[in-house]
Amino acid sequence: MPDLSGIVKAYDIRGVVGEQLDAALVRDLGSAFALLIKPESDSVVIGHDMRDSSPELAAAFADGVTSQGLDVVSIGLASTDQLYFASGSLNLPGAMFTASHNPAKYNGIKLCRSGAAPVGQDSGLAEIRDTVEQGVPAFEGQRGSVTEKDVLADYAAYLRKLVDLSGSRPLKVVVDAGNGMGGYTVPTVFAGLPIEVVPMYFELDGNFPNHEANPLDPKNIVDLQAKVREEGADAGLAFDGDADRCFVVDERGEPVSPSAITALVAIRELEKEPGGTIIHNLITSKGVPEIVAEHGGKPVRTRVGHSFIKAEMAKTGAIFGGEHSAHYYFRDFWRADTGMLAALHVLAALGEQAGPLSELTAEYSRYSASGEINSTVDDQVARMMAVKDAFGARDGVEIDELDGLTVQLPGGGWFNLRPSNTEPLLRLNVEAADAEAVRALTEDVLAIVRG
């Protein structure tokens, strides 16, 4: 029996193509997914990114689904949030083939139920894994069919309906698509808006020839920062490989914290629904719940990961949720994450006033932060326990383990240390009153982690 524990993660499936993932396995995964969702749907919508392996794997998955008697609606090339739009608007379960920001040799599958409801380890992924490991039962009935449907224009129109930019002043915006799916979706979404787009790396290329499609790594936005300054642009946007995350830089080329974007968008959503619930994950700035509460909203803290955020949004009726990884979730978008919609909110807020983006976002940036720092470790659990023991022995320290370790220090500084769900890494996020306090605390923790 195959062992899929290495590729079935907390909220998606991901692995190295040819070693961990191949067409035969993906066909079985498609069959197992079909069995999971048969009681609720007779069709599945499938999309894929621009990776070299994606079309073949998506086709294999479709073959598995149809082998169980279900039909497939193929939307072809798509961003992940475009697939969520298709799942929501068509009310169908979905499968998106992408490994997001991972290197070219990887691929994966993000799954959802009808209405873009999440499928994670506890909501179907473990069942799919078990079905494949034990052998997918054959279906004796009639095979399903595959039809193709282009939803790009409908997706773009839906986003533009949610954010009104008709009253915006003209803006010049540099967009770095990183050779990912943003190069496919941005031209259609921004068409007709009062925005001059300066494109960077819009050519679809799953080998990522210019830089990794991971805008959270500072080295991957260097080109964007330079271009914003060179063009005298009002803002810069960087999308990850499957274009569900969006990272923002201001007119100076300086990064805008995703926590500041979360606070900005939260306030705009609270203006539409006063008193609403806003989700923030546990590595966003503590400024986010402070600002939400100051504007009459109800902040709710949750663990990291899209399936967890979406489940909490469904439970609480939240109108918006933000993660420090630049994932942004909207109730009006089936509680799914869409960096594109967040970007439109930022540009609308900018276009509604005369000042620069740096001035607009300054009020949402209250503390200094380290950004996410990754450490490759042999034993994630042992390193985390060493940190817990070291800090737990100090006076006035509070520790919780909602997701990894979150350690609150006397004086307001805090950090979170958690294992990656997709790589052999520990991820550290530190926040404190100023840059020097962040530096000192970061060094303190890393000395133990990397010991």
From TrEMBL:
<keyword id="KW-0460">Magnesium</keyword>
<dbReference type="Pfam" id="PF02878">
    <property type="entry name" value="PGM_PMM_I"/>
</dbReference>
<dbReference type="InterPro" id="IPR005844">
    <property type="entry name" value="A-D-PHexomutase_a/b/a-I"/>
</dbReference>
<dbReference type="Pfam" id="PF00408">
    <property type="entry name" value="PGM_PMM_IV"/>
</dbReference>
<dbReference type="InterPro" id="IPR036900">
    <property type="entry name" value="A-D-PHexomutase_C_sf"/>
</dbReference>
<comment type="similarity">
    <text>Belongs to the phosphohexose mutase family.</text>
</comment>
<dbReference type="GO" id="GO:0004615">
    <property type="term" value="F:phosphomannomutase activity"/>
</dbReference>
<keyword id="KW-0479">Metal-binding</keyword>
<dbReference type="Pfam" id="PF02880">
    <property type="entry name" value="PGM_PMM_III"/>
</dbReference>
<dbReference type="Pfam" id="PF02879">
    <property type="entry name" value="PGM_PMM_II"/>
</dbReference>
<feature type="domain" description="Alpha-D-phosphohexomutase alpha/beta/alpha">
    <location>
        <begin position="261"/>
        <end position="367"/>
    </location>
</feature>
<keyword id="KW-0413">Isomerase</keyword>
<dbReference type="InterPro" id="IPR005845">
    <property type="entry name" value="A-D-PHexomutase_a/b/a-II"/>
</dbReference>
<dbReference type="InterPro" id="IPR005846">
    <property type="entry name" value="A-D-PHexomutase_a/b/a-III"/>
</dbReference>
<feature type="domain" description="Alpha-D-phosphohexomutase alpha/beta/alpha">
    <location>
        <begin position="8"/>
        <end position="134"/>
    </location>
</feature>
<dbReference type="InterPro" id="IPR005841">
    <property type="entry name" value="Alpha-D-phosphohexomutase_SF"/>
</dbReference>
<dbReference type="InterPro" id="IPR016055">
    <property type="entry name" value="A-D-PHexomutase_a/b/a-I/II/III"/>
</dbReference>
<feature type="domain" description="Alpha-D-phosphohexomutase alpha/beta/alpha">
    <location>
        <begin position="154"/>
        <end position="253"/>
    </location>
</feature>
<keyword id="KW-0597">Phosphoprotein</keyword>
<feature type="domain" description="Alpha-D-phosphohexomutase C-terminal">
    <location>
        <begin position="372"/>
        <end position="446"/>
    </location>
</feature>
<protein>
    <submittedName>
        <fullName>Phosphomannomutase</fullName>
        <ecNumber>5.4.2.8</ecNumber>
    </submittedName>
</protein>
<dbReference type="InterPro" id="IPR005843">
    <property type="entry name" value="A-D-PHexomutase_C"/>
</dbReference>
